[in-house]
Amino acid sequence: MVLTEKRHGTNIAIAIGPGLDEGERAFVCSRGLALRESASNLYWLTVRRYRLIERLEAVKAQFELEGVAVKAISLHGESLGCQDLAYGSTMKEPGFEAFDLRVNERWVDYPEFRERCAVAGIPTVPVLYQGPYSYEILDGYAEGQATGHSHIREGVVVRPVIERRDDVLGRVQLKYVSGSYLTRGGKATELR
């Protein structure tokens, strides 16, 4: 298994694929919706600050050089600085960390995802552990201080090294939220 740190931001996806006119175009999305470009929109600020469209185009070019016909590619991550756990970022200067990559309806295995992001200069969420699964390891890594920051950790995401599906779960990838995050005093949580 791979345990990555669950960052507390807002989900963002950058996609390159066919538009309504059948020509290729780039999309910036959140929660399944494509967002109109805006100078003040947090998602677009993130994309411009990290040059994510250009970097995703570089990842697409890597695949095409290897002979893969890329019809659609999407990079998934967290835009940071919009929640109470800000990771040194702000709404005007958001942070970004990627956690997934999808090519032609296929989720990329985790080691390949990390390598392709590194080559393209795309920041990724911190890896906390890679090895055999145990609940004790999962629970132990969920608590504590956020990597590189002075606030608490939201939790972890657990996933297999090699992508797989389960008949009940679907894609095998689960979030495990820390008790400290869920019960922090006076702050909005999933329990409210």
What do these coordinates show?
It is a single chain. The chain is of the alpha+beta class and 192 residues long. The chain has a single domain, classed as D-amino Acid Aminotransferase, Chain A, domain 1 (2-Layer Sandwich). It is built from five helices and twelve strands. The strands form three sheets. A six-stranded antiparallel beta sheet has the order 4-3-2-5-6-7. Helix 2 crosses helix 3. It is globular and about 50 Å long. 28% of the residues are buried.
Concise summary:
It is built from five helices and twelve strands. The protein has about 190 residues and is of the alpha+beta class. About 30% of the residues are buried.
